[in-house]
Design a protein that fits this description.
Blueprint: H1 3-16, E1 20-24, E2 28-32, E3 45-48, H2 56-70, H3 75-79, H4 85-91, E4 94-100, H5 112-138, H6 145-158, E5 161-167, E6 172-177, H7 189-207, H8 214-223, H9 226-240, E7 245-250, E8 256-259, H10 265-271, H11 280-283, E9 287-289, E10 318-320, E11 322-330, E12 333-347, E13 353-357, E14 362-366, H12 369-388, H13 399-411
Helix pairs in contact: 1-2, 5-6, 5-7, 5-9, 12-13
Amino acid sequence: MSTTELYSKITSFLEKNGWSHQGSSEYYDYYKPSADMGFEEKYQLNVPIRFTAPDYNESINFIARVVADFYESTPDELFYDVTDYASLLKRNAVYMKLASREPRLRDHSINTLHVINVLNGLSRSYENYIKISFKKLFSGKFRDAKKTMNAANKLLEVSPLRIVDLEFQSFSFGVSVDTLMGKEGISIEEVLRWREISLSRYNSEVLNADFYSRDGIEHIKSMFDPGERKAIYEPIFKAINSNAYSLSLTDNEYRPQKTFNQVPRSTELEIIPPETRVDESLRQIGYYSVLIAFDRSTPLSKGVNISKKMLEDDLFAKPIDIIEIDHIIDGANVIKFQQPLKVVLDSDANGQYIWSLEEFDLSVTTSDMLNAKKELTDKILTYYRYWRQGGGDFERLPDYERAGAFFAQHVMSE
């Protein structure tokens, strides 16, 4: 259904249910509810009518949700003839078309590598946009940056881009986001509502961004910092700037609405300055466990070199996100734990290393991995020393100290 059709269905529904049209302006049609609906006398509903506005799809769908809420229903039930899961996904899809620049192949076939290039660029750009936008919008609803990024990753797991329509003759396709699956795992209502419009926002702020005018470039720079712009726009520029094919945004009948011109190199460099650093979390920094041999008579810090070959094609080198420790050193004393501690190794959207003992709600966040080791060790030692001094009545302790005493009592050996 087009946005103009949705507008017509909304206004028709309002008039059938006692709302009266109060007039129009350049931007809105104004509707007043009937007196028996219980609204304040001055209340009116503003239905947007600027059909060509870049954010019109988002605006009219927002009004559809507002009206549906009034009637304790959903937009699908009131305004859409949704007969199956696929048609629901197609409702808010973004449609694109690739066409070979070689005249004899245009509208007949497309190189599979070109298809992969576009789909990979689109997926990477969209995922980075979701992570960055989610952090900006919802970081205040989570305890720390790690929890925020975990929630963003979970949202992407249940809301991936899906190809929901395909025309083979020239490679034209529609992509959409599943907003039905995974609802039970998202407890924040604002996140659920944002998920419904996230693809529309991405379409407006990224795919329909104006890369070719001064105002458009400045608008992009005002929305995102250089690292964010690199993560979001660089994959799209790589998909656009091809001499082998052209890429267009289309309507749901695959009629081109916007054909991307190649982005000039000077524009790329302005939007994505050289040496721009991407958020560490978007680079998916990880940790490796490597098997090494050493002379027991020599301190481990001396004479141990890890070569590149140790990390490549090595059955004994593997990525890890949890490491177990079974002791800690306090001066000359080696303190054994009753059972190994599991340290979760992670990083956040600002490139900070986050190491945590989640079962005890203990974590450190730092920009340097060596500092992460030291700070986590110091915290464990602080708890150990508090425990050795005989902490006292747990219930009278501040939460932080009580957690530390509980931690020490359960993991320290006598």
